[in-house]
Design goal:
CATH class: Mainly Alpha
Shape: globular
Helix content: over 70%
Oligomer: single chain
Number of domains: 1
Structural class: mainly alpha
């Protein structure tokens, strides 16, 4: 019992320490010019210089914009498709078959997904070029044009993770009380009215949970985009995670990288706070 009590007292402090130390180290690094030198690391205090440098960098501002656009657009599409698929599968005779098929994309590792889609988007030889040519659109420069590269990373994320949103929303949908739908049928409500007045309101907490998990996950995205576009072309798909990676390992600018990481952490915290407020409001 004494050992259990001791562990119970130590555990919260240990968890706080494990979380606080990396955060403190990250904040501290943002005020230093850190360089690799013979025999170790050289740290020179530069105050707010790194912050001035980062927040005046157009690439940093652009990275925030593309991160938010990529996150918001991907989540909205995945949630909408998740709702449509959940309703369709729930009313199908082959529920298990469709669930198994939809889960295939979700269980493929991100790196493999990136390689598959990079091959599909390859100029001339890729499946995407062949499909767009077949339907008369012509060849699309998926990997060499800034606009289409941004579209491609959204398509890949939607293809990979819509199944996740579907599973959460489907689980919420099949658990809704049938008595409400029976009452709606007795009252002569149409399918659209039933969806608007019963299904959607009752599914809102479930939809918010799915959107919450996908938002947090997309903000941390890295392997798929890196392997697919390497942040290009011309930094078109350089989200904050990729910018932090480049600053750390390509340019060895650790002060810059720490500020990028802190910015991503702040954006993530704001989204978490927003979803918590929305879920709390729904619970009241």
């Amino acid at each position: 019992m004494d050992l259990r009590n001791t562990m119970a007292a130590i555990s919260p402090a240990l968890v706080v320490g494990l979380l606080a130390y990396p955060l403190f180290s990250l904040v501290e690094t943002s005020f230093y010019n850190v360089r690799l030198v013979a025999g170790g690391v050289s740290k020179e205090f530069v105050g707010l210089y790194n912050y001035i440098r980062v927040f005046s960098d157009p690439l940093f501002i652009y990275s925030i914009e593309i991160t938010l656009v990529f996150t918001i657009v991907s989540v909205i599409i995945e949630i909408l498709l998740g709702i449509i698929l959940a309703l369709a599968v729930a009313n199908s005779k082959f529920k298990r078959l469709w669930i198994s098929i939809l889960m295939i994309s979700m269980i493929i590792p991100p790196l493999s997904v990136a390689l598959i889609w990079r091959f599909m988007a390859y100029p001339e030889m890729g499946l995407l070029d062949q499909l767009t040519s077949f339907i008369g659109i012509g060849k699309i420069p998926w990997l060499s044009d800034s606009f289409w590269a941004r579209i491609l990373i959204i398509i890949v994320d939607v293809w990979h993770w819509t199944a996740f949103c579907f599973l959460i929303i489907y689980a919420g949908y099949v658990s809704l009380p049938l008595i409400l739908y029976e009452a709606a049928m007795v009252d002569g409500a149409s399918r659209l009215q039933t969806f608007k007045e019963i299904t959607l309101p009752l599914l809102k907490p479930t939809i918010l949970v799915a959107a919450f998990f996908r938002t947090i996950d997309i903000l941390q995205a890295f392997p798929e985009i890196w392997q697919l576009t390497f942040g290009g072309p011309q930094s078109a798909t350089t989200i904050l995670n990729i910018l932090a990676y480049l600053a750390t390992f390509e340019f060895m600018d650790w002060g810059y990288a720490s500020i990028v990481a802190l910015t991503l952490m702040l954006i993530t915290a704001l989204f978490v706070l927003m979803f918590n407020l929305l879920l709390r409001r729904r619970a009241e």
